[in-house]
Amino acid sequence: MWFAVLPDGENAPAAASVLRSGATEVVSHHSGRPWLVGSWPAGQLVTAAVGTARLAVIGRCPVTVDALTDRLRRIRDITGAEGALAGLAGSFHAVLSAGGRVRVRGSASSVRRVFHARVGGVTVAASRADVLASACGAPVDERQLALRLLASPPPYPLADGGCLWRGVHAVRDGHGLLLEADGRATARRWWTPPDPELPLAQGADAVRRALTAAVDSCTAEHKTVSSDLSGGMDSTSLCFLAARGPARLVTFRWESVDPANDDAAWAARATARLPGAEHVLPGRAGAPLWFSGMDGLDGAGDEPGVWVRDSAKLTTLAGLMTARGSALHLSGGGGDELFAALPPYLHDVLRRHPRSVPGRVRRQRAARPRPLLPLLRGLADRSTFSRWLTAWADHLVPDPAKPPPARFMSGTAWGTFSPMPPWATSAAVGAVRSLLREAAADAPEALAAQRGQHAALAGVQMCGRAFRQVDQAATGLGLPYAAPFLDDSVIEAALSVRVADRGAPDRYKPVLATAMRGVVPDDLLARSTKGEYTADFYFALRRNRGALAELFNESRLARAGLLDTAALAAGLARPHLPPDVMRALDNTLACEVWLRHAIRPPGG
């Protein structure tokens, strides 16, 4: 699925002609000029017309044509779009054409992104970057590709404004793009994170209403939907909400190779309470391993996606679910980022509720042992976000002889220093270091004044970008994905809750647990553990080392000067990899596969 948005100007038809080769659908402005060009499934586009104005909602949204038309009547000019969209559930792009101007925006979470480039002499917006890259012949940006080699996905502001093709630009999350008739374009903010002021009970009620509406938007239009049911609180909540809807529910779970992983026990308790659903568990014999099925793998997405590691699993899951009639698969992505107690919350709690901090520190250190002195230094730190970016650039390659200052490593900093992998070349490290320093020099504001709020939103955006890539791959297999926790209304509700209540150290995900009381059985909400899959990683790596080494024999990353193949081979040969290197392997594999398929025709 993809679409491009064209301005209502005399040069727009020339740009549209470049894009039409891969398009199956065209929608016009009132003027008759092409407005939307692309390829999308039935039911994914709802349009309304009032006078010369046009409004389109593209994606998952239960709004009808009549209801959208009523909303469009409220709009006086292009600046009033958000008033017409307020309260809509789901995950979607919105495009407004009025008075010769066009406005397009995606979502706050990166699930629905907007890109733009000059095509045929005008600025064209699109939902996929590769569509624009193909249309304007843009080359791959090696610096941006090097950035994706980091051990963890690059956070704000590095990824949401960057794009992997030169000449193609990403609109930042929470911003929309305004297209003028003469082909000019400007980005404008449409969403600002809420202030975290609601007490637990009030905030949990808002989360319950928003999450219920989000899941309802998934079940309302389909006869059958499927959902992950790992046994964790996030997927369990989605399944119990989906079971209340009109669609038939099919749940799915992979079995871990680790007998100590307690996901299985909790998932079994949940399935016993969902007798109306069909439950699918392939078992270990029928479950492909991570890193398997690499031969002939298609890059699929417009960005590298860590789903590549799971490609065989994704293919198997799609086949099992579509065979049972599922038209949409629900994922619990975003739940950890919104509801888990992230370490930076302590920094915020100290400034609002200082008397509660000693007890919170004791409980946190009991759960996750860590040295006390670095933690206290981190709590006292008042470094700006840009200073943290600079420190990250200075310590991009770990050096045991010169560790970074304790205040940046305490867990209460603005983020975590994600290192470059040991197989990254000096050119790759230099490229990423320059991007970090350029970002710091711009003195960007953090996503929120409070570190915990910033960390939650940055995590949501990273999760949204990863989910977007999974959805692109899964949609190609016939099973589109949905992540209700990443819907804008759910994010808004969750981030409105007071930081001290979200980060309570003696309860696991207290906001979500409170919100789901009465929907999910209380004993399932009492779970305080989380499944651990390190054993699955090493088991799969041992079985697939040879295939991985062969895949990198003719490495495109090495040809680009970003990968040291000898260092990678040495890393693959090690019996155990540090956690950062484990994560970096996933990202390196994603970049390698993506680079082999980087340019394709629009919609191809």
UniProtKB/TrEMBL annotation:
Keywords: Amino-acid biosynthesis, Asparagine biosynthesis. It holds the Pfam family Asn_synthase. Residues 207-596 form the Asparagine synthetase domain. The gene is asnB_8. Pathway: Amino-acid biosynthesis; L-asparagine biosynthesis; L-asparagine from L-aspartate (L-Gln route): step 1/1. It comes from Streptomyces paromomycinus (Streptomyces rimosus subsp. paromomycinus). It catalyses: L-aspartate + L-glutamine + ATP + H2O = L-asparagine + L-glutamate + AMP + diphosphate + H(+). Its EC number is 6.3.5.4. GO terms for molecular function: asparagine synthase (glutamine-hydrolyzing) activity. One of its GO terms (biological process) is asparagine biosynthetic process. Coiled coil: none annotated. The keyword Amino-acid biosynthesis applies. It comes from the Bacteria. This is asparagine synthase (glutamine-hydrolyzing).
